[in-house]
Amino acid sequence: MKKYSKHVFFTLLFLLAFYSTFSNVTNLSVTDFDEWLAAKFNSASLDGSALEDKNQELDEKSLNVKKAKQRYVSSSVIEAVQTLEDSIDLTQYSSHEVTATGYTAGIESTGKTPEHPNYGITFSGVNVKRDLYSTIAADLDLFPIGTVLFIPGYGYGVVADIGGAIKGNKLDLYFPTVEEVYDQWGKKTIDVYVIEKGSGELTEEDLEKLNQNEALQVFRSQMKQ
């Protein structure tokens, strides 16, 4: 008897929890359901306008539930914005293991001060840039000028420069300041992916066109984090 009572108790708890969940999700109560059944089975006793009003009330509640679900889905999508790296299928590109360091246009990396006539100008002739497509330095025998690489953790890099110590499987990634070099990069050995091999030339117009790619503008804010 005691075991049976316990079973009944837990069954009642389950039914109560089920009703509570059903009521919260659908916004319908037992009273609403009873009234709906009564309206269906006793439609002959209701005039047309009364029946229509009751059905409209229930339809509105159902619509509110649908709208709430849509808002939830929309909110979830907004919160789950992809990263640039997640948006690319890197398996379709050839990869190379490289040792990548960071550099700036300043005297600590290039020996040039802002007063130097060639300050901030790369070997290709374009100005250094940190953007959706940033200027990087590479060994031109491996990666010709204009080669587009995807560098995990950094983004797209376009080969625009060279360096005395940049030989073989080495890259130098441009950052605007020394602090950013140390805080965001330092030195890493990673696999980079060849998106497009360069022709040996790169212009400011080429670089600007890459950075104005509309499909990538959603990721621009990530560059500022």
Descriptive overview:
With 225 residues, the protein is an alpha/beta fold. It folds into two domains: 78 residues, no CATH class; 140 residues, RlpA-like domain (Barwin-like endoglucanases, Beta Barrel), CATH 2.40.40.10. The longest helix is centred in the first third of the chain and has 32 residues. One of its GO terms (cellular component) is outer membrane. Pfam families: 3D. InterPro entries: 3D_dom, Resuscitation_pf_RpfB, RlpA-like_sf. Keywords: Signal.
CATH fold annotation of the largest domain: Barwin-like endoglucanases
The percentage of residues in β strands lies in: 15-25%
Number of domains: 2
- Computed structural class: alpha/beta
Lateral strand order in the biggest sheet: 1-5-2-4-3-6
SSE topology string: HHHEHEEEEHEH
CATH hierarchy: architecture of the largest domain: Beta Barrel
Low-pLDDT segments: 63-81
Write down the CATH class of the largest domain: Mainly Beta
Q: Can you tell me the overall shape? A: elongated
Helix content: 25-40%
InterPro entries: 3D_dom (IPR010611), Resuscitation_pf_RpfB (IPR051933), RlpA-like_sf (IPR036908)
Pfam families: 3D
Protein name: 3D domain-containing protein
GO molecular function, one term: hydrolase activity, hydrolyzing O-glycosyl compounds
